[in-house]
Task: inverse folding
């Protein structure tokens, strides 16, 4: 278990260094995912299986998918196609693959060895976490929910503003005769009715 | 690891990389919390990590939306350029 912890730590640090030194965003994201998975293994060896699972699901799953979406959307066009062709070379994916393979070997090792053999430190069960979370830190849970709500509203606002501006531009560009306050009103009304149901 | 993330924020000009570095720093803080919780056998560290996770999710969604707006407005992800063109 000690060896697993140290191996995962070294992988995490190496992947993080590679993340911040890459020039291509997608490569950096690949290394960042490897780093997150390594940190997840570290959590597991530290006796926090619940947090390890959450790390994989939320960080390596959801947040990284968001990042990849945005990065992919930002360089659309023929430049992206040229990049895509260059990405097919094996030199690009060998680094993350080697680090991930090391992590996979480690996970297999932990699974084979697993079950009885837990880490030296005490294991904190999910139940224990939940008991503390929903009793002592209840106000924190509420604040986190408010934060998430605010974040969602903010992200939607920023996205919707842009779309509305684009729609108005389209309207004024398409029919110059009806451009002006009337066109905007029509557009906002259609937008509202589309959003209502 | 936290210092690595900090170095990333300071060294890189690309806004995407700055966001990634912020993620790294949040992860490092969470790792410290969980390690502390494991050291003393308390659940508080993991609770704190859950809060960090929620905060990171909110921060990333807003940050990426902002990034998208900035890119569409300035056609660039250079932080210095955005700072100069403010107004």
Result:
């Amino acid at each position: 278990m000690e060896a697993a912890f140290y191996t995962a730590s070294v992988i995490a640090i190496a992947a993080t260094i590679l993340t911040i030194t890459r020039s291509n965003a997608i490569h950096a994201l690949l290394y960042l995912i490897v780093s997150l998975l390594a940190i997840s293994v570290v959590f597991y060896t530290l006796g926090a299986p619940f947090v390890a699972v959450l790390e994989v699901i939320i960080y390596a799953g959801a947040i990284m998918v968001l990042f990849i979406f945005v990065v992919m959307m930002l360089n659309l066009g023929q430049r992206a196609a040229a990049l895509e062709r260059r990405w097919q070379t094996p030199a690009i994916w060998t680094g993350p693959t080697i680090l991930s393979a090391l992590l996979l070997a480690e996970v297999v090792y932990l699974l084979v060895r697993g079950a009885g053999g837990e880490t030296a430190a005490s294991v904190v069960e999910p139940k224990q976490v939940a008991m503390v979370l929903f009793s002592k830190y209840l106000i924190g849970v509420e604040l986190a929910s408010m934060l998430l709500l605010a974040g969602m509203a903010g992200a939607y606002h920023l996205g919707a503003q842009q779309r509305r501006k684009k729609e108005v531009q389209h309207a004024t560009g398409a029919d110059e005769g009806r451009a002006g306050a009337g066109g905007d009103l029509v557009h906002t009304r259609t937008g509202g009715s589309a959003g209502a149901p | 690891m936290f210092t690595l993330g900090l170095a990333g924020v300071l060294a890189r000009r690309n806004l995407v990389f700055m966001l990634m570095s912020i993620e790294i720093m949040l992860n490092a803080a969470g790792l410290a919390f969980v390690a502390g919780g494991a050291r003393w056998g308390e659940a508080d560290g993991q609770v704190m990590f859950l809060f960090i996770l929620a905060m990171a999710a909110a921060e990333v969604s807003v940050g990426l939306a902002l990034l998208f707006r900035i890119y569409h407005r300035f056609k660039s992800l250079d932080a210095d350029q955005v700072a100069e063109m403010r107004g």
Chain A touches chain B through 56 residues (CB under 8 Å). Residues 32 and 45 of chain A are 20 Å apart (CA to CA). Residues 137-197 of chain A form one domain.
